[in-house]
Amino acid sequence: MQTNYFNMKDSEVRTIEDWVLYRYKRGKVTFSRQELVADFSHLSEQTIKNNLNLLVKKGQIFPVFKGFYSVIPITYSLIGIVPPEFYIDDLMKYLNRRYYVCLLNAASHYGAAHQKSQVFSVIASLPTLRETSKRNIKINFIATRKEIPQKWIKSIRGENGDFLISEPELTAADLITFQKEIGGLNRACTVIYELMESVKFGKLDNCFFDYVPTSTIQRLGYLLENELGQAEQANILFSKAEAHNCKFQRLLLKSNKSVENCEINKKWKIVINEEIEMDEV
Prior knowledge:
Layout: H1 16-25, E1 30-32, H2 33-39, H3 45-57, E2 61-65, E3 68-71, H4 88-95, E4 99-101, H5 103-107, E5 119-125, E6 132-134, E7 137-144, E8 153-158, E9 161-166, H6 168-177, H7 185-195, H8 206-211, H9 214-226, H10 231-243, E10 251-252, E11 264-265, E12 270-271
Parallel strand pairs: 5-7, 10-12
Antiparallel strand pairs: 1-3, 2-3, 4-5, 6-7, 8-9, 11-12
């Protein structure tokens, strides 16, 4: 039989507000509606809803996702919200999804993507999750049908425990694969240029190439060699791709754009139909 988180006779816990504070003092900064209902089964659904709405209005909790809440620590009380890094690991466990923080949010942890992203990007296992936007905090869930390669994910320490982000090599690849999510190929190149100090393609393995699309490898390799001044890393990537027996096919550098009078890079089989203009770094 499952036991409640606290003893309902405990003098510290008489109301839902007490319950939230009690847990917070003991390091539990997030909670689900199910947990709350289990400990207050004697209250009606409407009463619980009213109490939650009141705590939201008082700036004590933040509705992260349907049925899932985060306490707002004093350090964030003035703005009334908490950053996704604070609760993302707890949220994904609640949703029962494998995940990792990706794109600009991952790159920033390696010293790239200095401009703060307005969107918090997360790659997650199926079923697809709808993006959520609360008080100017938008979480974009990118669904993957492939099994997330745990070797290319790392755990980093946040304010509220650990959460998962992509390794630099996978971050670079994802920036190409999901370039539309961050504003296009030019932005991707700018961030990858900054990211390369942390990238070591020499350690790539079959797991990496099984997960990353071959089209991404081609575009990334071409850009590294011809636009980003990273010929050495590009050659390592090419050798690793050959060893994995990646089948390069003719590919547009930029999809859905004219190829008239465009040159073709024979090594990477890239149709050069886009001029790269990186931001100043």
